[in-house]
Amino acid sequence: MTVPLQNPLPVLVKVSRLPSWLRQDIPDAHRIQAMKQLFRGSRLHTVCESAHCPNTGKCWGQGVATFMILGDICTRACRFCAIDAGRPTQLDVAEPQNVAQAVKELALRYVVVTSVARDDLKDQGAGQFADTIRAIGQWMPQTKVEVLVPDFSNRRELLQIVVDAKPQVISHNIETVRRLSPVIRSRAEYDRSLAVLKNFKDLDASIFTKSSLMVGLGETMDEMKTAMMDLRAVDCDILTIGQYLAPTQLKRHLPVLEFVTPERFKEYEDLGYSLGFKHVMSGPLVRSSFIAEEGYQGCMQALTQKSA
Q1: Digitized pLDDT (tens) for each residue of the chain, 308 residues in all
Q2: pTM for the whole thing?
Q3: I want to staple 100 with a disulfide (CB 3.0 to 4.6 A). Which of 24, 129, 139, 243 is the partner?
Q4: Going by C-beta distance under 8 Å and a sequence separation of 6 or more, which residues neighbour residue 296?
């Protein structure tokens, strides 16, 4: 008998005042404007803007961005996410080539491609991911590609489409600990996400896998350790951990229950390495795609040391 989940979020007073470690320097306005003009001219979307990422100024100031394909309207409405949910727009068949051209114009040596969820499509967007990966390879063969994908309902034939395009890293986020997952990700499943990561590794063990956790929603240290162990059990290579920040004050979006200290983030990092992750990035402003190249390089270094 299944017992209904009762109030999985702890009853705590929500907090809103940002602590000092979450404040950032003013970014280069000219660089940001140039990036915006490039994206608008190519009809491209970035998760940086759509998800209200706190690192947009810093990353764009360095000429780095995460491309968001398949439009900017999601078929799911997760309670942590700022991306609009509803009826998606028609698929843009020119998008893969437009992304590749932007990658070339920006001369990126490492690029991250993510998307909204597209449960409305027959292949849930897997083909668009594959076409984008291949287009970048044609325009910029030296560029490494990381994709951050939805769960594709854990359909192996759809996962295979992405794997066959040969990105260097495939990322899929479990986002939070098991207890909180039904509330935070009502249209997704904790165990399904773990199965997706396992299946990607089973389909091609040479591709590094990656996942991410948010903190500040009432999770405990023991729950975080269990989540990390669950990820290692499916041979996840890279882990990122960052502070959850409510995108808006709307009822849909969960409030921040705790601003986790830098010291606790360091504990998470140390724990992650002790559990066997090849690379761990843990900090208040860390996001899935933040300085993503470091994760790939960390994995390559770990393999080199193992073979030495």
Answers
A1: 333 344 444 444 455 567 776 666 555 556 556 666 655 555 555 554 444 555 555 554 555 568 889 877 766 655 556 566 677 778 889 999 999 998 888 888 888 999 888 888 999 999 999 999 999 999 999 999 999 999 999 999 999 999 999 999 999 999 999 999 998 887 789 999 999 999 999 999 999 999 999 999 999 999 999 999 999 999 999 999 999 987 666 566 788 899 999 999 999 999 999 999 999 999 998 888 878 889 999 999 998 888 77
A2: 0.82
A3: 139
A4: 110, 144, 146, 168, 169, 208, 238
- What tokens appear for 303 in the block? 């393999």
**Contact indicator for 17, 245 with CB cutoff of 8 Å:** no
Please name each of the domains of the chain with its CATH number.
26-307 (3.20.20.70)
Sheet containing 279-282: give its strands across. 45-46, 66-69, 110-115, 144-148, 169-171, 208-215, 238-243, 279-282
